[in-house]
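Appendix B, example 12.
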Amino acid sequence: MKKTLFLMAILAVVLIAGCSEKAPKVDPTVINSGRIVTVSTIVQGDVTNRMVSETVFSGANAKSITKIETPQGQQEVIQIWVDKKIYNFAALQPFGQSMISPVDWKTTMTSFAKDPQLKDMGVLIGTEEVSGKMCDVYSIDTEQEKAKVWVLKNEGFPILLKSETTVPFQSQTIAQEVTFNIEIPESSFEIPTDVQFQEVSWNEMMGGQAETPVETTN
């Protein structure tokens, strides 16, 4: 089961409230925007890395700011999705990478939780709350991976909110703040004009191990 640094962290959106009696009712189970803050700790041997990621999203657009702390120092990495275009760059750096994605941000984020592999390899062991959100808890025990994952109980937008692994390395990622259907300004997804982006392919961005997420209809 493949995971990337940028897929660890995610979520937030717009709740439209109607004032008139004829205004349509908003379905609170439909997630359109949000904000999520995740904290990750990864231990490999005697080396411990820590990541704090804040993601806001609205529809197909999203922006994640991830602060990475390693024994060598700190780095801040930004990723912006605008529809099916992704921009990656580091803070205070003049260069970055951009690419066309085969799917949009929302599909990418939900693809892991909807992956048949999770159902095949994982055993549903119960339900549990993560930051006030009810999740299905799966246990995975294979030669390649030993883990538990907490997936938001939402058929339309099942986001991974927590994970713990012991094989192939020790890690924990947990969403400490989760808020859905909030107003996210369009300016949050503006592409910086002072960064020069080099166009790369989806496979290059994923380190040569790209798997196209499955397009879903909700």
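The domain at 5-18+25-192 is CATH 2.50.20.10 (outer membrane lipoprotein receptor (LolB), chain A). The CA atoms of residues 79 and 88 lie 5 Å apart.
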